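Q: I have 154 residues here and want to know how they pack in 3D. Can you give me a structure?
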Amino acid sequence: MYFDGVERSNGAGAGVLFISSKKDLLQYSFVLTQNCSNNEAEYQAILLSLGMAVEMKLPQLEIYGDSALVIKQLTGEFEVKKLELMPFRRYVGDLLAQILETSLHYVPESKNGPAEALAGITASLAYFDEWLNRVQSCQRWVTPPLAEEEAEEE
């Protein structure tokens, strides 16, 4: 599974690409409606993809992303220092624990092209709210508000 999150001045998006063992492709793109940093967009992308993987009951998942920071924070190589990223890290950890076997890999942007393209397209579309509301949506995936979840834990 490849993921990417993109933040632009006019919007943010997430792209996810699942590749089955038979080389079947499942491509998803998401408009992120909250203003966020690029790192938050990357975390949103992996949260959305892991949520789908859990819902699909995948027993194993190889995960590829082009954000060295996010991948290294998830593997424990880097410490999460920014407070706003801590809830994301915790929630991703909870989702990873629901999949029997996972591996996380950093890939350069050049190897993450399809996921990046999906994220970039939806980030650009976020600017056109009126048009976007006319686009038919088959299913909506929603991540819970992380700030509210954190407040409940305290």
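Q: Anything worth noting?
A: The chain has a mean pLDDT of 84. The first strand starts at residue 2 and ends at 8.
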